Amino acid sequence: MIDNIFILINNALDNFIVRSLIGGIILASLLSILSLFVYLKNWSFINVGISHATFGGLALGVFLGVSPTITALIFAILIALLIGYISRNGSINEDVSIGILFSMSMAFGVIILTKTSNYTSDLFSFLFGDILTISENDVFILSIFFMLIIPFIFIKYWKIMFCCYNEEVAYVSGVNTTFYYYTLLVIIAIATVLAVKLVGVILASAMMILPTALSKQFFWHYKKIIIFSVISSITFVVLGIYISYILETPPGATIVFIYSLVFFIVFGINKSKELLR
Description:
By secondary structure, this protein is mainly α. It has helices spanning 2-13, 16-40, 44-64, 68-89, 94-114, 119-128, 136-155, 157-165, 167-172, 177-204, 210-215, 222-247, 251-276. Helix 3 (44-64) runs antiparallel to helix 4 (68-89) and helix 12 (222-247) packs across helix 13.
């Protein structure tokens, strides 16, 4: 019985569309949950900085002939920790430091890739992603990361929410705010690197901003926001993959465009209702 189940899973993973859907659903669920914390901490620009910083790590991996994912993870985690440290302890304005760091990393990536043969295809893949090329190994890594992170988030949910909502009060109440601050940054950095496979460097941050932004148009209760974020993200990923396959457009760009379009439609309807009251 168990052997038959494994055979069924392996046969399913041999189909690139099925692999794409499984990987997309796992990643959409993860990013939509993290989206709430990014929103509460006002980390939208930090998230953009981390996603762009991965480009330098990806380029370095291609240049050295090692796994780009590994070098991107190292780059993203280091940049995330550096941004976090500067934000908490530095005298430089946070936005300025983030802008400098991600610009430097992007510039480094471009320089490295121009010294690499056949870099054009790698550049396009890194910038815009292609979930249709996701491998069985990618799905496995996503699954492991998901199973490790999600239990941690739900077990420590109230402490993380406390730190996100009011870090000073959380600290006075005895919560180790420094630990949760940097742990959340590292989790977001790793998730961002994994998101590059789905939507690329340029659009990775959007998948961690749009879920909560859309959910807030309907709900204010945080648990409802998380549930709706997960459902909407999975829906748009599946829909985006299907439409991109039919129209032969980049999957990542298609997903983000549809997601953004729906957000602005809903936002416009809500604003119109407010004006008519």
